[in-house]
Amino acid sequence: MAALASAARLRRRLLPYLNRLLHSASTTAVSPSPSTSRFLRHASPVPRTPDHSPYLRFPAARVSTLPSGLRVVTQAYPAATRMASVGVWVDAGSRFELPGTNGTAHFLEHMAFKGTRRRPNAQALEVEIEDMGARLNAYTSREQTTFFADVQARHVPAALDVLSDILQHPRFPENAIQRERGVILREMEEVQGMMEEVIFDHLHAAAFQGHPLGDTILGPEENIRSISKKDLEQYISTHYTCPRMVVSAAGSVSHDEVVDQVKELFTEFSTDPTTADQLVEANPAIFTGSEVRVENAELPLAHVAIAFKGASWTDPSSIPLMVIQSILGSWYRSIGVGNCSGSSLARGISNANLAESLMAFNTNYRDTGIFGIYTIAPPDTLHDLSRLIMAEFRRLASQVSETEVARARNQLKSALLLHMDGSTAVSENNGRQMLTYGRVMPFLELFARIDAVDCATVMETAKEYIIDKDVALAGVGQLTNLPELSWFRWETCSDDDFTRRIFFFGNAK
Asked: Which residues contact 298 (CB under 8 A, 6 or more apart)?
């Protein structure tokens, strides 16, 4: 009993001190009124920009370029686990495929694991990987292909040996090619059931008409059934070249040891100096304002994506567009945070009961980008929902507050940090940045660029990318109430543009 009484007295002495401590940080901010929510009594309602530098002093990434042009990047983080991730990032994806061969890059990803000269079949490769307790995987995007392994640190040399072998000495036996056709066709059927994947494929087709960037990654069924061994070999010899490849390792790794191993193992790739930038410059992607609508009366909810042309990876506007994406935010009815969300668009949709979910997106490519809103909604709300979304797009060009920009910056930085969870994410981030930026951008630099985006920058960027700009639209479901594309295009006009068009259209320049 004496102990309980002592603890109670200690709490009574501490409470006034804690109250003063909590309030001292917010006295310079807005003082909460008596009607302010009780959740703000001990915190400022105005977001602050925190100093992240103590958390960002990761070991620096080290980069070496071999005489062949192949680059090696390593980062010893987090090394304490004695685990590592190592992979090969190739500056080649579906946008670099020849006409009529769409799907080859993805098909090649599947065939890389079907055996080599030294590992004659998929089973031999799989047993070797499992004996190490490792994980071997790959993925293909529109601009990049990646092969990577997660292993114990002592098995990094073996992982590099496997990766170099499957990329330099792949066997494409005809029976394996035929089996993979069936596997990929089944994968295509699964993707058709993933509405988000379907919508974004339709959106790319609308935004980049007639360009490989608008094609799907898997390719059409007729291509999957006809891709040959010759197509696969030609794609490797053309695009898997040293200047377009990066070996990235992270975790418990030694840079010098990895470089020595890569020098010894990665010796048979082409050294053709042609870069991905040169190929993109020869066939640039042009954003087109168009739409793809797929009426489906069986779907209870409509899936709609509204997009504008975005920025390339290296465009100075790419960072402000990331902040704009954060301002627009994401919201899901099942989570139930609509009225409390920092996103004004999410609050409006929640209050008016207009949709089931909302997700802002921003995708960068080498020469362009695409950003906008993807929403899932009941068919009868589509018109009102579209009005609200387009009004929010216009608002970004004229009425953004410093408070919401500060909140968006904080959310963006937190999302970036949360993504860097483990050696796999670090290795992937470094490999991708080496291909897109030609270097690894330190987090302190990236966060400084984000913190430099203020209210004026957001509004200036929104004017440049939204106001009076073309719109790409994709919709699947019951779309009777979804306005026409011309309506969306007209809604991009600001009040000034509207007045000019109505009264001075004949003299407009």
From this structure: none
Give the Cα separation of 405 and 396 in Å (integer): 11
Q: Which of 233, 200, 213, 234 is nearest to 93 (CA)?
A: 213
Note if the bond before 78 is cis, omega within 30 degrees: yes
Q: Does residue 233 have an active-site annotation?
A: no
Indicate if the pLDDT at residue 181 is higher than 50. yes
Residue 190 falls in the annotated catalytic set: no
The phi and psi torsions of 309 (rounded to 5 degrees) equal: -65, 135
CA 117 to chain CA mean position, Å: 36
The sheet carrying 71-75 orders its strands as 62-65, 71-75, 245-251, 83-90, 145-152, 135-140
Does the pLDDT at position 55 exceed 80?
A: no
Calculate the average pLDDT of the chain: 88
Among the listed residues 97, 109, 143, 392, the single catalytic one is: 109
**CA-based radius of gyration for the chain:** 26
**Phi then psi for 148, rounded to 5 degrees?**
-145, 160
Query: Out of 180, 356, 404, 491, which one is annotated catalytic?
Result: 180
